[in-house]
Amino acid sequence: MFNKIAFCSLIVVTFSACNSTFIYKDEPLTPETKLDSSRGYGKVNPDSLAEPFSTKSVYNFSSVQGWEEGQTPKAPEGFNVELFAKELDQPRWLYELPNGDIVVSESKADRLSLFRDLNGDGLPDTSFVFKDDLNKPFGMLLMNNQFYLANTDAVLRFPYSDGDISLKGNGEKILDLPAGGYNNHWTRNLMASPDNSKIYVSVGSASNVGEHGMEVEKRRAGILEINPDGTGEKVYAWGLRNPVGMDWNPENGKLWTAVNERDALGDNLVPDYITSVQEDGFYGWPYTYFGNHIDPRWADDMPNDFSKAIVPDYGVGSHTASLGLAFYDKSAFPKKYQNGVFIGQHGSWNRTTLNGYCVLFVPFENGEPSGKPEYFLTGFISDLKDEKVYGRPVGVFILKDSSMLVTDDGGNVIWRVTANQ
């Protein structure tokens, strides 16, 4: 394995020379497009990927118009979608406490809000400011009566007792984290090991493909492992450009993550992916993608001791901004969903046609992906031609009552999905 900090400079490449002479002969993706491996979905054959710069790299940001009263996303037949909370300020992530309270990271407002259900109908009846004056809060967890919170620049912990409606004090900083960088890769997620002996911290890159030099990528583009008191830090896995959602596979206990891949190689490169995370594993960024595909922006500047990167397990489409990841380890949903994984796709900005903007489902069997992906929650795109959307899904969470919550930071709402009885 080559050194985790490359002591070389990135050769600057201009993309204007990559013009429409090499247009990719494929129709644009739409929400109705078949999700197959030729389009970067499923168990992708690395040899079938599009060529770099087959299309121009575009900036195509969606316009969020919000949801109309009574309007909801669409789920498959047999499911019910309802509004869980509204009028939030960029709700990105959430965490269910042992008593059923839901804590939501409102990252734009630099606060956590707590929602409490008083009558047992699964919907909140009251809410509280759980903690404010934070710094882009995101991931959370509870361990040994300590509430852990990941700001963009640090991991904090606070004492917590069952039923608390707020966190007291400023918390104890147990870990400094690198902050800032490309395209707001500011999210810092947290996941406890099943035995509560370790905490895993996901940290996105400070750049698209290392264009600012690899010194600024120290402790970034990977997953860190720490002890509950913040000591014992190690790089658990790296070469993961922007890992966000993490969860434990209920069938084999492996850690999985959802990863945002790189930009500016064209409409159909590089597919975002979900993958099991191997300890000490290297997944390619920024030098390669999907195994031994060398990023052309690094072709003349590869590390001398480069070794082959791990091929991700499963593609989930190019530029889909796949953020959320949650295994369904309950029994209320139909059997085909059990032990499978749901992925929150925030949606593209670097494609000619919008891609993502949905919750995707991937079936699993014996701990491995076992079939093609399926759309699960759709209807976020209101006008594909004019790039208008109602909202943008982020995190997907399975609660103890077997329901699903989906944060939507575009619509500033949270959706609740249940299976009809």
Mind sketching the topology for me?
Elements: E1 41-42, E2 63-64, E3 79-85, E4 91-96, E5 102-106, E6 111-116, E7 126-131, E8 140-143, E9 146-150, E10 154-159, E11 172-176, E12 188-192, E13 199-203, E14 222-226, E15 234-238, E16 242-248, E17 255-260, E18 271-276, E19 281-282, E20 288-289, E21 293-294, E22 314-318, E23 322-327, E24 341-345, E25 358-362, E26 364-365, E27 368-369, E28 374-377, E29 381-383, E30 388-389, E31 393-398, E32 404-408, E33 413-419
Parallel strand pairs: 2-30, 15-19
Antiparallel strand pairs: 1-22, 3-33, 4-5, 5-6, 6-7, 8-9, 9-10, 10-11, 12-13, 13-14, 14-15, 16-17, 17-18, 18-22, 20-21, 23-24, 24-25, 25-28, 26-27, 29-30, 31-32, 32-33
Throw out a few tags for this protein.
421 residues, 6-blade_b-propeller_TolB-like, Glucose/sorbosone dehydrogenase, disordered N terminus, Quinoprot_gluc/sorb_DH_b-prop, mainly beta, Beta-prop_PDH, globular, Neuraminidase, five-stranded antiparallel beta sheet
The CATH first-level class comes to Mainly Beta
Low-confidence stretches: 1-32
**What number of structural domains do the residues give?**
1
Could you name the CATH homologous superfamily?
TolB, C-terminal domain
Note the quaternary state here: single chain
Shape: globular
What does this molecule look like?
By secondary structure, this protein is mainly β. It has a single domain (20-419), classed as 6 Propeller (Neuraminidase), CATH 2.120.10. The chain has strands at residues 41-42, 63-64, 79-85, 91-96, 102-106, 111-116, 126-131, 140-143, 146-150, 154-159, 172-176, 188-192, 199-203, 222-226, 234-238, 242-248, 255-260, 271-276, 281-282, 288-289, 293-294, 314-318, 322-327, 341-345, 358-362, 364-365, 368-369, 374-377, 381-383, 388-389, 393-398, 404-408, 413-419. A 5-stranded antiparallel beta sheet has the order 1-22-18-17-16, with no helix packed on it. The radius of gyration is 21 Å and the shape is globular. Residues 1-32 have low confidence and may be disordered. It comes from Owenweeksia hongkongensis (strain DSM 17368 / CIP 108786 / JCM 12287 / NRRL B-23963 / UST20020801).
